[in-house]
Amino acid sequence: MPARSRHPAAPHALVAGAGIFGVTAALELRRRGWRVQLVDRWGSGGAAPHARASTTDVSKVIRMDYGADRWLTDLAAEAMAGWEGWNRRFSLPLFHRAGFLLLSESPFEAGGFEEASFRTLSELGRPVERVGPDALRRRFPAWNAERYADGYLNPEAGWAESGAVLATLLEWAEASGVEPIGGAVEGVEPFGHGARVVVCADEERRAIEVDAAVVAAGAWSNRLLPQLARQVEARAMPVVHLRPSDPDPFLPQRFPVWGADIGRTGWYGFPLHPEGFVKIGHHGAGWSDDPDRADALPEGFESRLRAFLADALPGLAQAEIVHRRVCFYADARDGDFWIDRLPDAPGIVVATGGSGHGFKFGPILGAMIANAVEGIEDRRLHRFRWRPGVAPGKEEARAEGLEP
Fold it and tell me: Is the pLDDT of residue 377 over 60?
């Protein structure tokens, strides 16, 4: 049954972008009684957004580990409860509580990302447990225990089947009455108290006048809102899938989601996928590129990856790379999301800046974005407000390096 409107005549919203920001916003606005159109350049099979969008993938880390940032830790814990709710709603669970293993090459020191995350979660009463070399060797044999002096396991964290989650949310949205449009948004401008959106679909351009436009176009957002150009940048990140000759050490019970001294090196990865590969990515500075054209990993990346594997995960050192991908972050200058009305155009709301860690907040993003659209006070939005001129600075798990 379509959502019942709380308004005499249902207001009309158009959401540009069907990644995790856009689809959750569309779902929540529809639940609140809005007429909602959701526009994206659908990927293969029509089930996912653009192939280079950050949401489009087989897996994303779901964690609460944010160093000393207690505010983000609490927000991630709120989202974690939402993941459990989604698992109950979905026909198959798509969030897997496989654990998150954070390793450090040196003993924990005050102020380091791993130490700060362990301390913050411990103070909150979360069941994190320290993992030293002996425990690493015994419980997680794929790792070179001589390489890592310290670490901890967060058993509440894990990973989500991101592409399947998105496809499920899109089906849910359409069943709720959200109207999908396959096409490209070419312009957004204020119009009266709302907005006018130019959409090109089926080789036809048309202007759609709406009460609210939500720009959730990820790495393409600053093309629609040039005001964001100095604050949210498309940054490319490398991802590979490797097929181990012996898959047994990489099964989830022996190889949880992991970060290998991630704040310094950027390396992170996942357990063996049901299709027999291990996904590894780099969470760092990335490189600036065009998300419509870039498809090559930087020169020298694979040799650096092989050197890391030979040292840390020798069972993968010679593994065949079966897939390479360039993933684009909508990378905010300070690493925080942008969810707010435009200062001089309240009918246009920006919802972007995932910065490589936004997907995990999916269960609570929609309500935050809808509150921004409706002008409802939300304590969570203060940090994500419109903030031009903000100083650079990323969340603590980000590494530098790997520029082409």
Answer: yes
Cβ contact 404:297 at 8 Å: no
Q: In the numeric block, which tokens belong to residue 349?
A: 């709301």
Separation CA 225–CA 213 (nearest Å):
12
Residue 72 has phi, psi (to 5 degrees) of -70, -35
Q: Among 179, 264, 128, which residue's Cα sits nearest to residue 2?
A: 179
Does the residue 73 lie in any domain? no
Contact between 158 and 65 under an 8 Å Cβ cutoff? The reply is no
Range with the poorest average pLDDT among 7-11, 119-123, 252-256, 297-301: 7-11
pTM (global) more than 0.85: yes
Q: Give me Rg for the CA atoms of the chain.
A: 21
For residues 186 and 347, the answer to whether their CB atoms sit within 8 Å is no
73: nearest Cα among 157, 152, 132, 151: 157
DSSP character string of 333-391: TTS--EEEEETTEEEEEEEE--TT--GGGHHHHHHHHHHHHHT---GGGGGGS--TTPP
Inter-CA distances, 92 with 86, 232, 251, Å: 10, 35, 20
Of residues 160, 180, 192, the one with CA closest to residue 23: 180
pLDDT tens, 161-210? 999 999 999 999 999 999 999 999 999 999 999 999 999 998 899 999 99
DSSP state of 92: S
The CATH number given to whatever domain includes residue 363 is 3.50.50.60
Mean pLDDT of 36-55: 73
List residues bridging with 328 in a β-sheet: 53, 236
What tens digit of pLDDT does each residue of 329-355 get?
A: 999 999 999 999 999 999 999 999 999
Give the domain range for residue 273: 96-159+233-330
Q: What confidence tens digit (pLDDT) does each residue in 248-280 have?
A: 999 999 999 999 999 899 999 999 999 999 999
Residue 148 and residue 277 in one domain: yes
| 251 and 310 housed in the same domain | yes
- Verify that 248 and 154 share a domain, yes or no: yes
Give the total number of structural domains in the chain.
Answer: 2
Length of the chain: 404
